[in-house]
Amino acid sequence: MAERPESEVPYPGDVDLEDEARLQRLVLATFPIVDQWQKVSTFVPGSGSQLKGDDTDWPPFAASQVAWFSIASAVEHLYAVRVHLEPLGEVQGTLLALAHQTLVRTALVSGSIAVWMLAPPERALRVKRAREYTAFSYDQHRLFLAGLLEHAPEHTGTQKVLERVEQRRRELAVVRLGSGEKSTFNTTRTIEVAASIAFPPDAAREVVLGWRVGSGAAHALPHSLLGRPGVVPASAPDGDGTRLFTAQGSFAIIANQYMAAYYMTNQAWHLLRERGL
After folding, report:
1. Which residues on adjacent β-strands are paired with residue 91?
2. Which pLDDT score is estimated for 230?
3. pLDDT at site 93
4. Residue 116: which of 132, 102, 105 has the closest Cα?
């Protein structure tokens, strides 16, 4: 069972989800730490560190920078929530029912990628996962550039970048084939693995459920709000027994998802230090 990440902030499971004020304090208590994270702009692994060695496996897309980019993305999305909720002058912070779920969803995905990649003590598994994610990144970049070229075929710079990405993609495929690697990156599987590393079993299941709810919000699926706090009747039932409802932002909606992303990112920082210093 994984130990709790180092933090003074309690788990959301330690707090009554009906207590909006305590949930607000729980989330706001993380902001000074998120502020510290946001100030870190670069990362270079130390000489002789495990990550320094991992970087030699595929220098065009160094493993340390893949992990660092994931952490930076997680931090920025947590910081975006922090900025939204901080009062600015006379303008009060705003808590949104759907948008904040999508922000913390992305933070959770990004933090999970870093934990999944950095956690294995065996170098072979770390570089295998780095290759898998890098191959996925090349695939997505290639699709974007191909679409961009269709939109502006006269742009020679885009064509050159596409050719380089395709070259790197082919070269990496040869390396992966030589190692017998056939797996493709899967976000849900990555979150499941990372959650099992960063959290005890019960909390890990909550993390995956939070990811699914956040995905619902990102894709405008109504179930991301159904039965949640902050959803209140807006009309009397009609003859068919149906009625209108409105949804408001609530810390009870985002607390578990935000804290899952926060603790996952905290674990990613811990692993980055362990592997990279």
Report:
1. 88
2. 74
3. 74
4. 132
Among 8, 23, 60, residue whose Cα is nearest residue 169: 60
Q: Cβ contacts of residue 77 below 8 Å, gap of 6+?
A: 103, 104, 106, 107, 110, 261
pTM of the model: 0.89
CA distance 32 to 20: 20
CA distance 1 to 197: 8
Mean pLDDT, contiguous 10-residue spans, the chain (277 residues):
41 56 89 96 95 97 97 98 76 80 96 98 98 98 95 90 97 97 95 97 92 91 80 83 83 89 98 96
Question: Encoding tokens for residue 168?
Answer: 């790197």
234: which residues sit within 8 A by CB, 6+ positions away?
243, 244, 245, 246
- CA 203-6-95 angle, to 5 degrees, is 65
Domains of the chain by residue range: 12-123+184-276
SS3 at position 64: helix
Of 114, 119, 121, 166, nearest in space to 139 by CA:
166
